[in-house]
Design goal:
mainly alpha; Rossmann fold; Tyrosyl-Transfer RNA Synthetase; 3-stranded parallel sheet; two-stranded parallel sheet; 54% helix; 8% strand; binds tryptophan
Length: 329
């Protein structure tokens, strides 16, 4: 049985539509297939590599976990926990850093981008981030990691690190985790780039319908479609990528045709998208409401998940220490 491991950083208040359509919804499908053991983390320790406010941080972690649950991750079928509740993550990260190849670490494109973006405050954690990510996965002997395209390189690094460890210590202690590539890449409402908090182009998952509509109404579409009379190009339009994720296939084909022929305008397209989105989001908001009404419930789920993970992580670390010649005393 494959062990699935994945995680998201607790950024923003809850998560956005890109997180949901691009990842969370697909995690839920994997869990519901019943074919895997699955563990999902709120990776709070990773978030420390960026600017953050310690005062509001606990609420962000909580909101992220709540969103996992609202999106349909069922805690009776998978394990949900907060990364920093299991100290073994940071412990294994150090041990792995002593086998992780520096050359490969230096090639990580995300580090290059981020260190460009936050020039004044580049910390060592931002550089060693992929080692902690490898530790997250290997601690549970994860074999299948559902991640977006931007994380594939980090996953390759985790595979290489597992291989280096096994080679150095003569044991097949860690299975090499394989990516489970996520299919959809949702662009932001600026139409330019992937939807992302740091780019300020998001639609929040748990926002009320009118707030969702406001964002949609202002969303960029095909820049060549300067007037209603000019046909659009769905393949470059961010609205169309969202339609593909939430609108029934037959209707998507219609929209594709009618956009090209200018039979519909961007306003019509946005209205239809809002309707499709609402079908998807209404149950999510309801679940989130229900959970907010009993805040202790989310903490209880995370505490249980943490206990389960500490047990597994403890077992792995005993093997790791023994393989590395770190005696138990
Ligand atoms: N780096 C991932 C991201 O930003 C989050 C993450 C941390 C992760 N640890 C992980 C994803 C382990 C998969 C497995 O999206």
């Amino acid at each position: 049985m494959a062990t699935i491991f994945s995680g998201m950083q607790p950024t923003g208040s809850g998560l956005h539509l890109g997180n949901y359509l691009g990842a969370l919804r697909q995690w839920v499908q994997l869990v519901e297939s019943g074919q895997h053991r699955a563990i999902f983390a709120v990776v709070d320790a990773h978030a420390l590599t960026a600017d953050y406010d310690p005062k509001t941080f606990p609420q962000k972690v909580y909101d992220t976990a709540l969103t996992y649950l609202a999106a349909g991750l069922d805690p009776s079928k998978c394990t949900l926990f907060v990364q920093s509740d299991v100290k073994e993550h940071t412990e294994l990260a150090w041990y792995l850093s002593c086998v992780a190849p520096m050359g490969e670490l230096s090639r990580m494109t995300q580090f290059k981008e981020k260190s460009e973006q936050y020039k004044q405050s580049v910390n060592a954690g931002l550089f060693t981030y992929p080692i902690l990510m490898a530790a997250d996965i290997l601690l549970y002997k994860g074999t299948l990691v559902p991640v977006g395209a931007d994380q594939i390189q980090h996953l390759e690094f985790a595979r290489d690190t597992a291989r280096h460890f096994n080679k150095r210590y003569g044991k097949e202690l860690f299975p090499e985790p394989a990516p489970h590539p996520l299919r959809l890449r949702i662009k932001g409402i600026d139409g330019a780039e992937k939807m992302s908090k740091s780019r300020g182009n998001t639609i929040e998952l748990l926002d009320p319908p009118n707030a969702v509509w406001k964002k949609l109404r202002g969303a960029f579409t095909d820049p060549q479609r300067a007037t209603r009379e000019i046909g659009g190009r769905p393949e470059v339009c961010n609205l169309f990528t969202m339609h593909q994720a939430v609108t029934p296939e037959a209707k998507v084909a219609e929209i594709d045709r009618d956009c090209r022929s200018a039979a519909i305008g961007c306003g019509d397209c946005k209205k239809m998208l809002h309707e499709s989105l609402e079908v998807e989001l209404v149950p999510l908001r309801a679940k989130a409401e229900a959970l907010r009404a009993q805040p202790a419930r989310v903490d209880e789920i995370l505490r249980d998940g943490g206990a389960t993970c500490r047990r597994i992580a403890g077992d792995t670390m005993r093997e790791v220490r023994s393989a590395m010649g770190l005696a138990a005393r």
